[in-house]
Amino acid sequence: MSPLLGIESLTIQAGGKPLVSNVSFSVAPGERLGLIGESGSGKSLTALASIGLLPDGLQASGSVLLDGRQVVGARDRDLVPLRGTVAAVVFQEPLTALDPLMTIGRQVGIAVRRRAKRDGHPTDSITVMGEVLDLLDQVSLPQPQRIAEAWPHEVSGGQRQRAAIAMALACKPKLLIADEPTTALDVTTQAEILKLLGQLVRERNMALLFISHDLPVVAGAVDRVVVLRHGSIVEQGPVATVFGQPSHEYTQSLVAAARAFDDALEIAP
User: Fold this and answer.
1) For residue 106, what pLDDT band results from cuts at 50, 70 and 90?
2) Rounded to whole angstroms, how far apart are CA atoms 163 and 146?
3) How far is Cα 220 from Cα 222, in angstroms, rounded to an integer?
4) Cα within 13 Å of Cα(233), Cβ side
5) What's the CA angle centered on 43, arms 251 and 171, to 5 degrees?
6) Cβ–Cβ < 8 Å for 194, 102
7) Tens digit of pLDDT for each residue in 147-157?
8) Facing residues of 236 across strands?
9) Between vectors from CA 106 to CA 100 and to CA 107, what angle results, nearest 5°?
10) 87, 173 Cβ separation under 8 angstroms
């Protein structure tokens, strides 16, 4: 089976300085892969490159095949049909990811209408809003009608993140890219969002590329991990192997730090 996302020798540069160097990995249909590393390791840049959304001034080389289509060097207008349909992104801070000048329902509705138009389904306001409310219900938002009519600043961080997930799911993507989706949330809400993502990925048989620096979070969300440091892969493999018997000293330090933190919590009064 061909990978849904295949990255080979990806290098990203800014003014001749490499930010990501010779990165290669793949995500199979239905697979859950974690991309981990400290801040500045190149995780988010790699994810953005996979859907052709690198910021201006950055140059990518190598190969990124998304559902068989080459992303590196492609025109943006040729990649637009892949976004949402093949891959959708949930960003780490929904307050900035969501448009503050539009209600939540309208923002989710734009994605619903786009998918309906693509599939030849009705795009009238009543039908679209019905699907919006259904999506908000699927991501376990209470009172979907109230949330749909609310502005982003009028709901909690966890509710905004659930709305962002609903918007990402609206186009029924094959691959969901979750870029540190729980970073801005409290511990209890983090657990709820992780449980929700896991449930939705299984129910919809989607592939998942989960980006995080938090090892316990990653361990509970994916089957396989890729460890990045300074823009390069230092280790990759099944979660149990990489976290249970890390071979690279950097991964060993990450695992040791995570264990020390857990031990500190256990002995705290």
Assistant:
1) very high
2) 12
3) 6
4) 19
5) 130
6) no
7) 999 999 999 88
8) 226
9) 60
10) yes
